[in-house]
Amino acid sequence: MNGNGFLVRMEGISKRFGTVQALKDVDFDVKRQEVMGLVGDNGAGKSTLIKILTGVYKPDSGRIYFEGREVSFGSPKDARDLGIETVYQDLALIPLMSITRNFFLGRELVRKVGPLNLMEHRKMDEIAAGALREIGVKVRSPDEPVAILSGGERQSVAIGRAMHFGAKLLILDEPTAALSIKESQKVLDFVLEAKERGLSIIFITHNIYHVYSVADRFTILEHGRKVAEFAKGEVSPEEIIEIIRSGVAKVITGRCETCSG
Amino acid sequence: MHFPSSLVLRARKRPEFGVFVGFLIVFTGFTFAAERFLTFDSIAGIITVAAELGIVTAGITFLMIAGEFDLSVGSVLGVSGMIFAITAAAGLPHIVGLLLALVAAAFIGLVNGLLVVRTGVPSFIITLGSMMLWRGVILAVTGGFPVRYWGDSGLLFALNGRFAEQLRMSAFWFLGVVVILAFILTRTRYGNWVFATGGGPQAARTLGIRIDRVKIINFMVSAVLAGLAGCIQFARFHSVDPTRGQGLELEAIAAAVIGGALMTGGYGSMIGAMLGALLVGMVRSGLVMAGAPSYWYQAFIGIVLIVASVVNIKLRRWALG
Ligand SMILES: Nc1ncnc2c1ncn2[C@@H]1O[C@H](COP(=O)(O)OP(=O)(O)OP(=O)(O)O)[C@@H](O)[C@H]1O
Ligand SMILES: [Mg+2]
Questions:
Q1: Which of A138, A181, A259, B42 is the most buried (most CB within 10 A)?
Q2: How many whole angstroms separate alpha carbon B50 and alpha carbon B286?
Q3: E strand intervals along chain A
């Protein structure tokens, strides 16, 4: 069932918010060193699915396996501690705090002095600045507040943070939404680089051409259900767009979940 | 030319920049308006008033940075002072009385915090209720009469003894509290969590910060410091009135806001809280010395509060683009 090839397996995940059935009986998996493209229309349930995987929400039903072991996340910290790092659509940045403080929030480098955990400000500044330089963000100083950064710069900070801490699984929810063409390309390069380093990546975006250029497989959601799953060779970007547009996968050959056998 | 201008540029980005300038202006004003203002006795008198208020202000600021609010500090100050006074009058060792008073304060803070994070009712409402509840308890227990105690001890001296003219030990407690809380906020991991809890609770939670725990701890810190201020005030007056601390919550919140703390959380500083409390203390003494009827004190503080809030908002927009 949970062979060594899989880093993550989610089985029969359902989640309801009041009257909204955000997810219904969704199976989803990611192999080791694989880029999984998670696509679907607005409100399809993509963010909800990954928020369940990162411990933000508890599923109403279903199981999650990570590295072959069943896990149950009580909080986002549990998922982070296992090596799951996320760039959320809302970025999870705190505008009034400095870049460095945001970068290391919940992961502060500390030196223990008696009962005190003293932050290593200088070291954290250096690392944060270095990580951002690496993804090509020029910040005047890592102790500037995030509030003064542009949308794209903020997104880069969130990505830089996830890249830096992402030990095993990196989840990117619309990471290129506010980025210029050049910045987007950097993110895509980084996804491939992270894969090269052995990480698995879940990439969510509405830009099918972006995800198609980096993903190995695709999962397509529609109204909270999984409608299809393809390996890259089985489908073209245009066909994926057609499935999302029409909501049916019948038109395509390949592994099609909703087609009756 | 370059160095000083960049210094100003850096300074204006700090939360306490506004109150620092305001402090200098008011200080200069009183120096000219009131003859005896710039004397050792007068400055010491200001510090004595500001120290007791400032310890409470520091606690409230610490809590406000975490995005919550405490109207019950005046009542907590009264409860702790009363416990200290009653136990001393009953002949208990002062250290026991002091500890009981602080434990009671911590308990009230814990209940405030638990109610806020568990129920989701805004802290304004919960602590308004708490303020009325504990004031009522004090009035009921004392029957409305003050409690006096004329004894003395090393501990009472350490809390608020006079050691040079009008200068009292409370100044050191004030300074100590400010330094410790400033250190926690700026240098420790917990300080990072406090700013995050107030500045973006959703994001902080997502990143694994236990924001409920941070809030409860800060409610307790705020209450314990109010309790400490109550004990320090008792050591000065040797009596506690059942209305002791009434109205102080508003003064402390005013001082915190003047000091640059944001009501919405995530922003503020201990140096700002200290200057805010000193500014309020200075206005109180300065107006009297300038010959203004003491009735004008509240009106003046009201003006300072409004002007400070407006200036602080403008400064923040300027600094944060
Ligand atoms: N916290 C919540 N409370 C109530 N409803 C929610 C909540 N989160 C998501 N939903 C609902 O669940 C459905 C799926 O939302 P989700 O955010 O997962 O979609 P998405 O695929 O990420 O969409 P988008 O591409 O627009 O980001 C939507 O109908 C949304 O309104
Ligand atoms: Mg989404």
A1: B42
A2: 13
A3: 6-17, 20-31, 35-40, 61-66, 69-71, 84-87, 110-113, 116-119, 169-173, 200-204, 217-222, 225-231
List the domain boundaries for chain B: 39-319
Cβ-Cβ contacts under 8 Å for B186 (sequence gap 6 or more):
none
Pairwise CA distance, residues A166 & A145, whole Å: 23
Task: Provide the 3-class DSSP secondary structure of residue A136.
Answer: coil
B80 touches B227 (CB < 8 A): yes
Write out residues with Cβ below 6 Å of ligand 1: A 17, 20, 22, 40, 42-48, 89
Our CA angle for B166, B169, B170, nearest 5°, is 95
Complex ipTM value: 0.86
CB contact under 8 A, A88 and B206: yes
Q: Which residues of B touch A139 (CB under 8 A)?
A: none
Tokens of B300: 């003046």
pLDDT along chain B (321 residues), means of 10: 55 82 91 88 92 98 97 98 96 96 98 97 97 97 93 93 89 98 96 97 91 97 98 95 94 95 93 96 87 85 90 81 60
Closest Cα to residue B74, out of B99, B121, B108?
B108
The whole-angstrom separation of Cα B287 and Cα B45 is 13
Q: What is the pTM of this model?
A: 0.88
Task: Extract the tokens encoding A64.
Answer: 């999650």
Identify the pLDDT of residue A5.
84
Q: Tokens standing for B40? A: 């050792």
- As a whole number of angstroms, the distance between CA B223 and CA B231 comes to 12
- Alpha carbons B135 and B145: distance in angstroms, whole number: 13
Which residues, including other chains, have CB under 8 Å from residue A2's CB and lie 6 or more apart? A9, A65, A68, A69
Alpha-carbon distance of B42 to B37, in angstroms, equals 6
Locate tokens 């100003």: which residue? B8
Q: Is B29 on the interface with A (CB under 8 A)?
A: no
Contacts of A117 (CB under 8 A, 6+ apart): A108, A110, A111, B188, B189, B190
Residue A228, beta-bridge partner list: A220
Taking the CA of residue B56 and the nearest CA in chain A, the distance in Å comes to 23
By CB atoms closer than 10 A (0-12, 13-18, 19+), residue A170 is buried
A134 CA distance to ligand 2 middle (Å): 27
Do strands A69-71 and A61-66 pair parallel, antiparallel, or not at all (unpaired)?
A: antiparallel
Alpha-carbon gap: B99 to the closest alpha carbon of chain A (Å): 22
Domain spanning B39-319: CATH 1.10.3470? yes
Three-state secondary structure call for residue B157: helix
